[in-house]
Design a protein that fits this description.
The structure is a homodimer. In chain A, a hairpin with a 5-residue loop joins β1 (about 55) and β2. With about 220 residues, the first copy, chain A, is an alpha+beta fold. Among the domains of chain A are: about 5-65, Winged helix-like DNA-binding domain superfamily/Winged helix DNA-binding domain (Arc Repressor Mutant, subunit A, Orthogonal Bundle); about 145-220, Ferrous iron transport protein A (FeoA) (SH3 type barrels, Roll). Chain A has 8 helices and 8 strands. Chains A and B meet through α5 and α6 of A and α5 and α6 of B. The complex binds manganese (II) ion (4 copies). The site of one manganese (II) ion (MN) has 4 residues of chain B, from loops. The structure holds a DNA duplex (30 and 30 nucleotides).
Amino acid sequence: MDLTIAEENYLKAIYHLSEGGKKSVSTNDIAGEIQTKPASVSDMLRRLSDKHVIQYKKYYGLQITESGKQLALQTIRKHRLWEVFLVDKLQFAWDEVHEVAEQLEHIQSSLLIQRLDAFLNYPKFDPHGDPIPDEYGDVRSRPRIPLNEMNIDQVGQIVAVKDSSAAFLRYLDKVGAYIGARIKVLDKVEFDGSVEILVDQKKTLFMSKDVASNILVLQS
Amino acid sequence: MDLTIAEENYLKAIYHLSEGGKKSVSTNDIAGEIQTKPASVSDMLRRLSDKHVIQYKKYYGLQITESGKQLALQTIRKHRLWEVFLVDKLQFAWDEVHEVAEQLEHIQSSLLIQRLDAFLNYPKFDPHGDPIPDEYGDVRSRPRIPLNEMNIDQVGQIVAVKDSSAAFLRYLDKVGAYIGARIKVLDKVEFDGSVEILVDQKKTLFMSKDVASNILVLQS
DNA sequence: AAATTAAATTAGATATATCTAAAAAAAATG
DNA sequence: CATTTTTTTTAGATATATCTAATTTAATTT
Ligand SMILES: [Mn+2]
Ligand SMILES: [Mn+2]
Ligand SMILES: [Mn+2]
Ligand SMILES: [Mn+2]
């Protein structure tokens, strides 16, 4: 039994909300993530439950099932592979890919995804540093921490961003913070949590705690 | 006002039927093309008319409008560009692309199509020899005739196929008839319309009138 | 021209997906 | 623990898209 496009989008949102360490996912959380109304979510939860991709008892919260998790991971795999395609092959900027990938992720063809994966040389991460699940749903995630949680003098490499909004990504482009950049924490301001970092041993950069918390670093 | 996926599919079918038969397109014809019921077509015709992509007076037939034609051509452009992508870049066989392109043609992003076109080196024809409309909807079609209408001793080049079904395309693969092949008509059987041709000055091939009528040739 | 047949449309049903407003249940508060 | 607030669900409406069965209109035949 296949999922509709709307069902795939809901399931993906539920998976993302579940991953964030959150124990139970609320109807309002889902509504916020999908940009829809709680009433629509309640309706959809019943349908997802009927298809056994979530366990759901009304008013008691929900849990994604193993089969639901696998389906969500396949949609995420497709989304991220398409993002790599758009950036690597079609010269899209990393802040331009999301909307298009949101559509492409729903194309149904296992052959297509196999071939696309090979064509892209089996990438392990998308343009935002997020890991690409393999065809069995396995994710090789790297240990990474928000930049604002690093201490002075610690060094590492920017490997991902938490926020993939165009506004944030364009800001990073402007200041010269990119995935793969080697950084060192030069200073942290106690008062507001802002940080000063050295990028590629050349350039110093000041950023607010808000910005730093959306940059994920692999420490070394 | 954008079209839905269903509306795009109907409009594309109407365009194809208008191009072929020329005269008026019937509700039953559309139902046959789209694999749906006449009742559903009547319903859709009213909606397409509301969106001014066809002119429609019930029981009196329909005509595609200029804006409808442009929209259909853009969908066809996307369909054929994706087919080229699948064959040239992802090693799909020409009989494997249709279903996937049928989905990909509905992805909405003008930047995507511009970039895809460039990435593929601005192809003029799809894997089945059909011309790819440019971004303004202009189609540069070559004069071509069905193979069964050629006379003995005439020569030419296979440039397209009328039938794009997997069964037909796999048959052509098997006998070695491909787009670009140079052919010469060696013999025609009056009785059943079957023909004997020479392919690439090497191989002789017998084919029924039915097969020959689905192979389009550019005479030389 | 009347009767018959074919084509097209409408009526009414079902399924998906969404919304607003109202009701019900759970959680928070004093 | 009773009351208030928040969250969640349901009721009822709208829009898309499809179907079967009935009806209407057009076309064909006698
Ligand atoms: Mn999506
Ligand atoms: Mn991404
Ligand atoms: Mn289609
Ligand atoms: Mn084609």
